[in-house]
């Protein structure tokens, strides 16, 4: 975790040092040994290795729209399992980012449906993605209004910003629920799964830590496994 923090500090300050063709050329002689795995957003403004000033080979990266982990049987959870079980990764980070188009779309869909319950997003994979994020945006709206009770109704921008954080923790929770190997390593103290948010404007990555209900999630899954 500290290496990621240090790398991001170099990126923000303009002192990045780990990108050159000579470093990339050496990769053919080495097997994979990443220091961390990261589930990030597919947004082209969030280039993971650059954000952490990490040379090729340092981070095992998986990217989806909105850094969403939508199912237990998909390639995302399995890829992260591979990084942990086979490559020996000790840290997994779910990285959201400011100005996330997926979170903005999900928030807009939630508010539009409230104004007009008959409004429908055309059927397709995008609708499935946005529909699946409704619990995230609803929770973000509640938390935003609780945080500023005097303000009243939360603005869309406020909800989007909160949704980015809520969604990062939601993906952390889903990963723990979906993946028994990852869950077991976290329970045994061999692995940590953290949430973080990248601010596109400043370049700063804000590390949010492990899930605040980690003990509860592990306890619930342990009882179900018996």
Determine the fraction of residues in helical runs and give it as a percent range. Answer: 40-55%
The coarse overall form would be globular
- From the alpha carbons, calculate the radius of gyration and give it in angstroms: 18 Å
Low-confidence residue ranges: none
Which sheet architecture does the biggest sheet show? 5 strands, mixed
Strand content: 5-15%
Description:
With 226 residues, this protein is an alpha/beta fold. Helices cover 50% and strands 14% of the residues. The protein has helices at residues 2-13, 21-25, 48-51, 75-85, 101-115, 125-132, 134-147, 156-178, 180-187, 214-225; strands spanning 36-41, 59-64, 91-97, 192-198, 205-210. A 5-stranded mixed beta sheet has the order 2-1-3-4-5. α5 (101-115) crosses α8 (156-178) and α7 packs across α8 (156-178). It is globular and about 60 Å long.
Keywords:
alpha/beta; 226 residues; 5-stranded mixed beta sheet
Question: How do the helices and strands line up, and which of them pair or pack?
Answer:
Blueprint (H helix, E strand, L loop, with lengths): L1 H12 L7 H5 L10 E6 L6 H4 L7 E6 L10 H11 L5 E7 L3 H15 L9 H8 L1 H14 L8 H23 L1 H8 L4 E7 L6 E6 L3 H12 L1
Parallel strand pairs: 1-2, 1-3, 3-4
Antiparallel strand pairs: 4-5
Give the gist of this structure.
By secondary structure, the protein is α/β, with parallel strands linked by helices.
């Amino acid at each position: 975790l500290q290496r990621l923090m240090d790398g991001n500090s170099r990126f923000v300050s303009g002192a990045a040092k780990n990108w050159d063709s000579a470093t990339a050329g050496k990769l053919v002689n080495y097997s994979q040994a990443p220091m961390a795995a990261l589930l990030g957003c597919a947004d082209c403004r969030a280039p993971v290795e650059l954000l952490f000033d990490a040379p090729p080979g340092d981070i095992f990266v998986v990217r989806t729209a909105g850094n969403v982990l939508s199912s237990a049987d998909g390639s995302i959870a399995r890829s992260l399992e591979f990084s942990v079980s086979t490559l020996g990764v000790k840290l997994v980070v779910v990285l959201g980012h400011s100005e996330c188009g997926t979170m903005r779309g999900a928030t807009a869909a939630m508010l539009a449906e409230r104004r007009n319950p008959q409004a429908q997003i055309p059927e397709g994979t995008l609708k499935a993605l946005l529909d699946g994020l409704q619990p995230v945006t609803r929770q973000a709206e509640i938390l935003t209004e609780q945080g500023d009770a005097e303000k009243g109704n939360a603005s869309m921008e406020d909800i989007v910003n909160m949704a980015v954080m809520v969604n990062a923790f939601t993906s952390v929770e889903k990963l723990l629920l979906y993946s028994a190997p990852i869950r077991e390593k976290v329970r045994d103290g061999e692995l940590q799964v953290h949430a973080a948010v990248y601010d596109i404007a400043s370049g700063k990555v804000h590390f949010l830590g492990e899930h605040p209900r980690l003990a509860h999630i592990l306890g619930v899954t342990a009882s179900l496994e018996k």
